[in-house]
Amino acid sequence: MTDENGTIESHPLHHGEEVESYPPSAEFRAQANVNDPSVYWRAAEDPEAYWAEQAQRLSWTKPFTETLDWSNPPFAKWFQDGELNVAANCLDRHLAAGLGDRVAIHFEGEPGDTRTITYAELTHEVKRAANMLTSLGVEAGDRVAIYMPMIPEAVIAMLAVVRLGAAHSVIFGGFSAESLRARIDDARAELVITADGGYRKGRVSALKPTVDDALALHGGGSTVERVLVVRRGENEVSMQEGRDLWWHEEITAFDGAHEPRGFPAETPLFILYTSGTTGKPKGILHTSGGYLTQASTTHRDVFDLKPESDVYWCTADIGWITGHSYVVYGPLANGATQVIYEGTPETPDWGRWWSIIQKYGVTIFYTAPTAIRACMKVGRQVPEQYDLSSIRVLGSVGEPINPEAWRWYRDVIGAGTAPIVDTWWQTETGAIMISPLPGLTALKPGSAQVPQPGITAAVVNEAGEQVDHGQGGLLVVQRPWPSMVRTIWGDDQRFVDTYWSKFGDQYFAGDGARYDDDGDIWLLGRVDDVMNVSGHRLSTAEIESALVEHHAVAEAAVVGADDETTGQAVVAFVILKSQQKLLTPEGAEVELRQHVTAQIGAIARPRQVFVVGELPKTRSGKIMRRLLKDAAEGKEIGDTTTLADTAVMQTISARMRGEL
Length: 660
Ligand code: WTA
Known about the structure:
By secondary structure, the protein is α/β, with parallel strands linked by helices. Helices cover 29% and strands 24% of the residues. The strands form ten sheets. An eight-stranded mixed sheet has the order 16-15-12-10-11-18-19-27, sandwiched between helices. A seven-stranded mixed sheet has the order 9-8-21-20-22-23-24, sandwiched between helices. It has a four-stranded antiparallel sheet with strand order 25-26-28-29. Strand 22 (364-367), helix 14 and strand 23 form a beta-alpha-beta unit. Bound molecules: 5'-O-[(S)-ethoxy(hydroxy)phosphoryl]adenosine. InterPro entries: Ac_CoA_lig, ACAS_N, AMP-bd_C, AMP-bd_C_sf, AMP-binding_CS, AMP-dep_synth/lig_dom, ANL_N_sf.
């Protein structure tokens, strides 16, 4: 088989099964940032030297002499005696290099308003904002919560915070007041930066009122002293005297004179909360020098970025790690020109993304499989109406991409020729860990394939031993890497227990994986109680505890059932308290879906809620979610012999078929 991009070769996946692979074209390879395969073994021979070399591409106010301190595992210190200012690395140094007129951000608001912001302008605005934050008392070592729509001020706010040596905690705008408050409390933030509202699906979605609700919860009394509000949605908001300030009013007092200070490389840069296997979200802590080194290196090499000519677009929201590393820090550290779009792909219609690609001549496009599948469903006739010929590299992140979606993405969006980089990584890893390099790797649809240079990831068995080619197991990272999570904020023990107790010195990612016969890595999804819905991580325990907080619910079990579009979907099984039997199953479903939305946010809303009389439990009382997952997926129910009551699954299946 051949295509115009070169030979498609066939490789065995599992024994007997063939997968096609797509080597880079000679033309792409010749121009690629990384096109010498010796990079892999050179980095493997001395990973620290490799990363020290990458770190030299940043500007250090004080050079580091020690690359890695791993004397107290699993607490890594990278480049620790060096000092730098992360914001200055993303801004000022590009001006010093004469690049001030380069566009940093092409902003496209959902209603169609646009702004073009050069590096000089972005730097000026961040300096003013830093001065404003200083006047509000923000200092090195503080935490600032950011709850914003996808507008340039979100990026400006993040960079202004870190310019001062403070850390931000960005909370996705879809989270509820409860979730917001829990994160503010955990980080002990004294300032919240928000907006009145932002545009989503053709209307203004309010944010400031949620901040008000969050701060009023639990009788008020939060750590927050000030709320800074950007005007965007022009929706009605109330401003609390002495606490709330309008950004556009405050900022007028400040000019763009601000000298960045260097801070030690291990200065906390941000906390980002993510779901774990328990109900309480984990505050993933990232620090400065190592994080910026790996975010910028991978952004340059994995996407083959040419900052002088590429127009890059990552569709992630800044509320997620992808937005941190591949909208803010990676691209800006590399002096890239990028698109930031505020809204949803279907507004006003499904042509929106493709019209943006055509309008700005986007060359590198990075999105999630769930979005690709949604676009596939709508049909190729939509993107085919647009000129997408500027695209030269495509990226995928967040969940395994099924080969069918991969091929559609390459054919329809990438003209059948663009390489797709399927990037595996996590909030905890901070930056891309496993991915093809587009100038080197013969791509296999559905596989993230190869650890990045300088990264040692492996598939191991339960004993922590690497498995053979053709075998499956658990994914681990074997050596510390620069952008690794430093701890769980305020909870070192949980950090150790979660990631390092299973295999000791190897980082346990929580993902299943397998090697194919060539030794390429295929990710198989989570092996713990974390679900992946539309590329977003959700915890079964967190949703279960939200459900049992409802006055009518006695017990709840939540599973992630396979879903054609969203990868997985939340399906809940609940037992109602006896006095609540009058609530109809339909009534309970509506009410409980709404309840979860209010407690956590719409991303966690169950697709279905089934009222059941009993839950399948082992004799020791552990809920067997595996069986519920089978039922939710309409599959044959697996082995029920360890259940205390083997009849319970028959009753549940009958209930789900509507027979009871
Ligand atoms: C999953 C997102 C397969 C995985 C950057 C991981 C993937 C979790 C991929 C992290 C991929 C992410 N192929 N699975 N290319 N990328 N995942 O923290 O299960 O939101 O553990 O970070 O998403 O999700 P998180």
